[in-house]
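sry for the spam today, last one i promise. struct tokens for design, 314 residues
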């Protein structure tokens, strides 16, 4: 019996294995499929599915937590800085203005109450201010930490007061009319005054309009002449424009000098300096006896003396 062979039962490969037979036969097709599925579930530790992983994958690392807190803080600060109450405009600082009403400036800016200074776009505000007739340039900025809107305005410089009837149209050097004042209103020093006595004077003149370029050229030249420039004893000179004589300079209660009409094509304003020199020579030594001076050109002129009173008969 020592050498007796132990019979091994034969089994089909597809038969279910019991504990005693496990490992004695090859896997069945179903077993191979199950093994393949288990292999696909191998975790990072190398253990197969079904076994407990040695380490857990951490969802929230310190770096991720710091990033999340940073995003939350940024969102809070943005909401705080751009909110309707934080950093709201506290006031509007305006410069001293001569020709522009501060109420008009406020209305042009049209800043909503409580608007945040960080939400202000100053470029459109500056463009709006430049549309005001008396504004030559404008700058708008924000002052921190007091959240004030600072407005800087450069007004047009008046050089000419064109008078028509009882009003004076104030214009700058380019002829832009930016203000209208009464004839009795005080004017800044150096502003030339021209009294337009032509028929229909003042028709079409308005704020934002332009005076004729030739008129502006002649008016600023003649309006800047002082009595000393022509050797006159008069205390002041007056410049007028009439339909009959064109531009005229006169000494109140004394003589008048006809400078005439000007046109770029026929009679240039370049002759005016020569006419002024000629007027000075004609008045020299005889001003009290001159009634009227005709200045045809820079070199051609004549004068009409005052009439001599006839002696009274006894």
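last one done:
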């Amino acid at each position: 019996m020592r050498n007796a062979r132990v019979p091994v039962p034969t089994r089909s490969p597809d038969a279910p294995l019991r504990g005693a037979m496990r490992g004695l036969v090859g896997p069945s097709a179903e077993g191979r499929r199950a093994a393949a599925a288990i292999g696909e579930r191998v975790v990072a530790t190398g253990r197969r599915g079904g076994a407990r992983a040695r380490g857990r994958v951490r969802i929230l690392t310190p770096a991720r937590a710091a990033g999340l807190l940073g995003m939350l803080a940024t969102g809070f600060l943005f909401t705080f800085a751009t909110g309707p109450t934080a950093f709201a405009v506290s006031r509007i600082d305006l410069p001293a203005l001569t020709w522009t009403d501060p109420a008009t400036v406020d209305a042009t800016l049209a800043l909503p109450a409580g608007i945040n200074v960080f939400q202000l776009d100053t470029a459109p505000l500056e463009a709006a201010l430049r549309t005001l007739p008396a504004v030559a340039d404008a700058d708008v900025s924000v002052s921190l930490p007091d959240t004030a809107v600072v407005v800087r305005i450069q007004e047009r410089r008046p050089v000419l007061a064109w008078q028509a009837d009882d009003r004076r149209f104030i214009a700058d050097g380019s002829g832009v009319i930016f203000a209208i004042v009464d004839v009795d209103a005080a004017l800044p020093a150096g502003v030339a005054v021209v009294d337009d006595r032509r028929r229909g004077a003042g028709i079409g003149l308005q704020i934002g309009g332009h005076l004729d370029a030739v008129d502006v050229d002649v008016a600023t030249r003649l309006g800047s002449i002082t009595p000393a420039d022509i050797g006159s004893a008069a205390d002041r000179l007056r410049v007028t424009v009439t339909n009959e004589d064109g531009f005229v300079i006169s000494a109140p209660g004394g003589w008048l000098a006809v400078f005439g009409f000007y046109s770029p094509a026929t009679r240039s304003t370049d002759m005016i300096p020569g006419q002024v020199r000629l007027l000075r020579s004609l008045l020299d030594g005889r001003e009290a006896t001159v009634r009227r001076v005709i200045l045809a050109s820079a070199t051609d002129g004549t004068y009409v003396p005052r009439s001599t009173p006839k002696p009274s008969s006894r």
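The longest strand covers residues 135-143. ok im logging off now
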